[in-house]
Every structure is written in C-alpha cells, then in structure tokens.
C-alpha cells in the first residue's frame, strides 16, 4: 500500500510540473516566413476574347548562342528550306519565319491537355525576339489563342521541332475547342526534327533538341528545368500563384526556340548544297548520303558516302556505307567499281560479307562466265549462311562444271 501511495505522489508532482509549464496557454506556432511575391515579367494583354499575359525577350544580334552568331540568322537565304521541304518553301526571307514551341500540362496530348505557354521566335534587324503567350489560368486560353493567331498572320513559314506530330495538332485541338479557326493553313510548316535525325542519328545517341544544343552548338544551359517537371511547376503556380519556379519554365521555352532558330541555320544548309559542305564528321556525311539516295540523286549520294569513308567511320557504319556505295555503283552500271567494294567486303567478317559474296558469285557466273570462281564465292557464302537460293546456285554450278568441256570440278 505504501508503494502505491508513493507512485501516486510522484504522478501528481509530474502532472503539476506539466500544468505549470502551460499555465500561459499552448505556445503559438511561429508565423510562416513572409517572402516578397515574385512578379511575372511582361504585362497583361486585352483582346476581343478576354485577357492573358505576354512576355517578350530580345537576344541582341551581337550575341552568340554557343558557337552560333545570332547576327547570322538575318543573312540566311530565302530558299534555305527548299531542299528539306521538297520545294514547298521557297522565296521566303528570314523575317517571314516563325519559330514555335509550346509548354503543356501533359506530354500525352488529348483534349484535356492545354498549352499554357506558347513561344514564337522571329528574326528582326535588332536580333532574335521571342514572344511568349501565357495563361495565368485556364480561362485565359481563348484570349491567348486569339492573340497567337493575329501574331502568326504576319509570317509565311512556321518552324518547329516535332511540331508536326505534337505542337500543331495540340494547338489545332485547342483552337477548335475554343470555337476558333486554327491559323496554320496559311503557313508552310518545316519540322526540323526529321532532317536533324537524318543528319545526326548515325553520330549521336539522341537527337533531342537539348542534346543537339549541347553537342552541336556547345551550349551548357544554366538554371534550366527538366521538361517532365514543367507541368507540375505550372499546376503549383495555379494553386499558389508563386511565380518564382515558373521563371525557369519561361527560360526553358525561350532557349528551346533560340536553339531551334540556330539549328535552322545549320541543318538545312547541309541538304541544300552538299558539294559546298566543309569537312564534317563521317557519320554526318553518311546520313546526308542516305538522304540524297532517297531523293534519287545517286551521284550526290556517292560523293558524300566516299567522303564519309575518307573522314573515318566506326566499323559497323563503315561496312554499311561500303555496301551502300556498291549498290549505287551497280545501279549506275559501273560494275567494275562495285566489284572492288564487294571484294573488300568479302575479305573480312562483317554484316554484309554474305551479301558481298553473293554479288560476286552472280557477277562471275553471269558477266565473266567464270564458273569456277562463281562456285568458290558460293561455297564461301554457304559457310556463313545456308539459304535455298545459294544451295541451288552451288548445285547448278557444280553440274555445269561437271559437264564435258567445262574443266574439272573444284
């Protein structure tokens, strides 16, 4: 019983100390740190469809974007995009080009995805200007699209990067959902993604715009934001109206557009005049050679393939390029030149060794009537791969050589 009384006494003392501690009431939580609000750059714009926000940034002509001089943009030829657009864009001076990119609430597209930031770059005498149309809330979309359509009406060409598959269809959907006519029918669309891939996919692991910006232009972005984080930053802004993190999104969009413009001064020139291309990486020349082959210009293609070989290629690409050279030489009726390449390919282990031996077998059988050599090439090919066609060729050649008057069988 004494122990119980002692424990109760200790408990009362402990409760008394707690009551004494909070006699003045529960201490209030410290007030949150007050930060000065960050204001959006630019200003509000009133249109016939409502209000939205716009910003504009000038990259002066004396500046450089990595290795590219911005002043060079104004000197680009009016037929720059003719080759990569199959002739649909010709006689359009640089001041009539609009470089467009969007930042959206999602990457999957669909009617629920909106473009909350639309950037349009243009070449001016002062330099390169980027105007950005921004939605502070969803209700400003109609006004922003109205202003965008008016702005695009002064241009003849729209240049994008993957815009044919993503940006333009998305914007067309948004225009229609706002009961407005899309403005893109009056613009020739040049999507630089496809020609960039042709030029660099054999050299670079990725042809994403930011990768080309770094590898081709030598730009190291500072204060950038990953593209997959942009929707979250915008949703946070809509909820909290905090514009601090949103500044990185505006910068990201403007940099993408400036990079697109600078690459437009590099990529189309490579397709426009292949004979004027200076020394380049061999893989780039091989990519250009493939494009000119597809355009049914075998002589241009051959020159570029041979220059690519001279510049140096990795083994896999080298053997593929040699095979492409042999096919073009054969197509042009220059079988002697093709024969030399087939012989090189047949002499070493590679992905085209069997095909080269097969071509040699056909050549010796049909052109030179050298059945012994044709049979030797056939047997070498069969050691690499057994196909019904090659088995039939061997049987036919052996039968021919076994006939009287054709010499001994090898």
- Helical content, roughly? 40-55%
The topology string of helices and strands comes to HEEEEEEEHEHEHHHHHHHHHHHH
The main sheet comes to: 7 strands, mixed
Overall pLDDT score:
88
Main β-sheet, spatial strand arrangement: 1-2-7-6-5-8-9
Distance between the first and last residues' Cα: 117 Å
Q: What is the total tally of β strands? A: 9
User: Helix/strand-derived class?
Assistant: alpha+beta
Radius of gyration, CA atoms, in whole angstroms: 34 Å
Low-confidence stretches: 29-38
List the defining traits of the structure above.
two-stranded antiparallel ribbon; 410 residues; alpha+beta; 48% helix; extended; 13% strand
Layout of SSEs?
Blueprint: H1 2-21, E1 43-47, E2 50-60, E3 64-65, E4 68-69, E5 97-104, E6 115-124, E7 127-134, H2 141-152, E8 157-160, H3 163-177, E9 188-191, H4 192-200, H5 209-215, H6 230-240, H7 246-264, H8 267-272, H9 282-294, H10 298-311, H11 315-331, H12 335-346, H13 353-366, H14 371-384, H15 388-402
Parallel strand pairs: 5-8, 8-9
Antiparallel strand pairs: 1-2, 2-7, 3-4, 5-6, 6-7
Helix pairs in contact: 4-9, 5-7, 9-10, 10-11, 11-12, 12-13, 13-14, 14-15
């Amino acid at each position: 019983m004494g122990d119980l009384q002692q424990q109760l006494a200790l408990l009362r003392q402990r409760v008394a100390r707690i009551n004494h501690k909070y006699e003045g009431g529960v201490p209030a939580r410290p007030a949150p740190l007050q930060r000065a609000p960050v204001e959006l750059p630019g200003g509000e714009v009133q249109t016939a469809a409502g209000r939205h926000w716009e910003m504009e940034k000038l990259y002066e002509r004396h500046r450089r974007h990595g290795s590219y001089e911005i002043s060079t943009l104004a000197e680009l030829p009016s037929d720059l995009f003719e080759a990569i657009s199959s002739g649909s864009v010709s006689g359009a001076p640089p001041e009539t080009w609009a470089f467009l990119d969007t930042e959206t609430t999602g990457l999957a597209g669909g009617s629920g995805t909106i473009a909350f930031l639309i950037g349009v770059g243009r070449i001016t005498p002062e330099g390169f200007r980027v105007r950005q149309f921004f939605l502070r809330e969803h209700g400003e979309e109609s006004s922003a699209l109205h202003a965008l359509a008016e702005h695009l009406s002064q241009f003849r060409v729209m240049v994008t990067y993957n815009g044919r598959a993503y940006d333009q269809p998305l914007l067309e959907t948004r225009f229609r959902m706002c009961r407005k006519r899309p403005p893109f029918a009056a613009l020739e669309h040049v999507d630089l993604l496809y020609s960039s891939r042709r030029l660099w996919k054999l050299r670079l692991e990725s042809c994403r715009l930011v990768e080309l910006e770094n590898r081709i232009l030598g730009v190291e972005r500072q204060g950038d934001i990953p593209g997959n984080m942009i929707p979250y930053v915008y949703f946070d802004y809509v909820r909290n109206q905090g514009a601090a993190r949103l500044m990185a999104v505006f910068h990201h969009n403007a940099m993408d557009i400036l990079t697109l413009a600078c690459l437009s001064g590099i990529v189309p020139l490579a397709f426009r005049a292949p004979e004027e291309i200076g020394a380049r990486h061999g893989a780039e020349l091989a990519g250009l050679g493939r494009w000119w082959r597809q355009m049914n210009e075998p002589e241009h293609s051959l020159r570029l393939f041979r220059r690519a070989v001279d510049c140096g290629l990795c083994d896999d690409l080298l053997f593929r390029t040699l095979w492409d050279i042999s096919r073009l030489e054969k197509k042009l009726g220059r079988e002697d030149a093709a024969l030399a390449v087939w012989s090189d390919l047949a002499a070493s282990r590679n992905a085209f060794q069997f095909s080269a031996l097969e071509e040699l077998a056909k050549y010796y059988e049909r052109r030179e009537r050298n059945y012994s050599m044709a049979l030797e090439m056939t047997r070498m090919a069969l050691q690499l791969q057994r196909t019904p066609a090659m088995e039939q060729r061997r049987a036919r050649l052996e039968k021919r050589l076994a006939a009287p008057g054709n010499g001994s069988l090898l």
